[in-house]
Amino acid sequence: MVNEDLEIVEFGGNEISVADLVSILDSKKGVRLSQSTTWKNKINSGAEFLEKYWKDEGVIYGVTTGYGDSCTVGISPELIEELPLHLTRFHGCGLGNYFSAAIGRGILATRLSSLSQGFSGVRLELLERLELLINENIIPVIPEEGSVGASGDLTPLSYVAATIVGERQVYHKGEIRETAEVYKELNITPLKLKPKEGLALMNGTSVMTALACQAYSRAEYLVKIASRITAMSVEVLMGNKDHFLPELFAVKKHKGQNQVAAWIYADLHDQKKREEKRLQDRYSIRCAPHVIGVLNDALPWMKEQIETELNSANDNPIILAEEKRILHGGHFYGGHIAFIMDSMKNAIANIADLLDRQMALMMDQNTNNKLPKNLSGAQGERSAINHGLKALQISVSAWTAEALKLTMPASVFSRSTECHNQDKVSMGTIAARDCLRILQLTEQVVAALLISVCQGINIRIRQNDFDKKQLKAGVVDIVDSISDISAFVDEDRPLDKDLRVIIQRLQDQYWSIC
Q1: How far apart are CA 312 and CA 331, in angstroms?
Q2: What angle do CA 151, 157, 159 make, to 5 degrees?
Q3: Which distant-in-sequence residues (6+ apart) come within 8 Å of 285 by Cβ?
Q4: How far is CA 435 from the centre of its chain?
Q5: What is the DSSP annotation of 324-381?
Q6: 167: DSSP letter
Q7: Which residues are catalytic?
Q8: Which pLDDT band holds residue 8 (cuts at 50, 70, 90)?
Q9: List of E strands, 116-237
Q10: Are the C-beta atoms of residues 124 and 35 closer than 8 Å to each other?
Q11: How far is Cα 139 from Cα 169, in angstroms, rounded to an integer?
């Protein structure tokens, strides 16, 4: 049952956006299948055609044959209906950490989007079961590891198929429970899969695409918060606002880069009264739009490609019921998502590196323009035993190094597997997992920088270098908000709890930026 308090995203005959998918993933929106008769007829006719075709002794991969390299093995008619259950079970070998319930919910919605295109030969009942699982928050517990990204996300998606048939485990009401127990409690009957339905559920790019949607949303926010942090770093270092002048960027015509420069410029207070102005700030300040702008310029085409994958049929074979044709191909190959995730993680890690360098400038008395070492707020005799944000900078360096280490593209590590049937694979899910890990590390860097720039601005105010009233409203909002979470550091104290709160707010996109 759909929660009536939630907005609804309709599946079937209309495009699903990245924003829609992320809202479903975050439980901010529910789902509903189209009530269009035309769409329902398309779904039903595909399932009916497929059923008739294989019963009339047509040869269909994964229906009347084994899977993968076993496609040369014919399945006797009396065993065909057992085959999909075997597919779900022998792929139950995923390991590693489990995806969160939110990611699992996004995976269900992404698979629903693909199957609702009407080219997979599945019944309406199967789509209704996916709709039910999402709206009742019965979410498969899915291990992160085990997909090579072609033939799709077979092993992780087997946990979706297993949930459909009432097996393995699910998240429900904040607990991990046996699927069969939850079904019994809610009076839900496990669904018996028709001959192609196991393959249709598992043979696709839905895990990597769900991860890509979340990565896109977080990356889009990162661009904005990194731009504001850069402006705040300029304030702390008393840098040169002219590096971000609109007329300067008018001659360098990358739109996303220009937008970042404009955001930074708008966040900086008027420097006309300043007596001394450094002619050229260091690259991590002066070139910040050129670093952050790379990701900002890439995001539109990344979004376009993610949404194309999200709204495509990506299993095999493809069922064209109206033309009475079954086409065998490789739409499960996740090359586009792999390329986007490999590219995105590179641009994100570069932002982590940029912010790490900005923090280094603020900590060092040789570069911080008359601020105390390590931005320590201690004064007098107590300054000797207090070390300010020294260790925080070390942690930022560690997180940045780990992020940079993970930027090696996963897609170039294609492996030949499954008796050389899957002899060229995308590694898209590994790339997406790497990207989310790099995002996590970069958000940790961002959290540390937020503490640092707010500490630095408060020191400037105490030193009468400028008045808080001179600062732009967006900067003041961040300073006040961070101060509520993490008080001014005048005596050494642990900052880990403060950082965790800030990271959660970053991931919740708590601050309205730009």
Answers
A1: 9
A2: 145
A3: 230, 233, 234, 237, 239, 243, 358, 361
A4: 8
A5: TEEE---TT--HHHHHHHHHHHHHHHHHHHHHHHHHHHHH-TTTSSS--GGG----GG
A6: -
A7: 61
A8: very high
A9: 139-140, 143-145, 169-172, 175-178
A10: no
A11: 9
Indicate the SS3 state at residue 117: coil
Is the pLDDT assigned to residue 272 strictly greater than 80?
no
Q: What sign for the dihedral angle of Cα 492, 498, 500, 505?
A: negative
**Residue 341 token pair:** 């995730």
**How much of the chain is helix, strand and coil, in % rounded to 5?**
60, 5, 35
465-468-473 Cα angle (round to 5): 135
| CA atoms within 13 A of residue 310's CA, in its CB half-sphere | 28
What is the enclosing helix (H) or strand (E) of 10?
A: strand 7-11
Domains of the chain: 7-203 (1.10.275.10), 212-316+329-507 (1.20.200.10)
3-class SS at 319?
A: strand
To 10 degrees, the CA torsion angle through 212, 218, 223, 227? Answer: -170
Tell which wins on pLDDT, 59 or 133: 133
How far apart (Å, rounded) are the C-alpha atoms in residues 435 and 70? 34
Tens of pLDDT, residue by residue over 306-363, are 999 999 999 988 999 999 998 988 899 999 999 999 999 999 999 999 999 999 999 9
Which residues 6+ apart lie within 8 Å of 127 measured at CB? 11, 12, 33, 43, 112, 115, 116
Cβ(222)–Cβ(440) below 8 Å: no
Q: The dihedral of CA 165, 127, 185, 25: what is its sign?
A: positive
Residue 329 tokens, joined = 């191909």
**Closest to 450 measured CA to CA, from 472, 481, 471:** 481
Model confidence pLDDT, tens digit, residues 472-509? 999 999 999 999 999 999 999 999 999 999 999 999 99
Task: Tell me which residue has tokens 């300029």.
Answer: 234
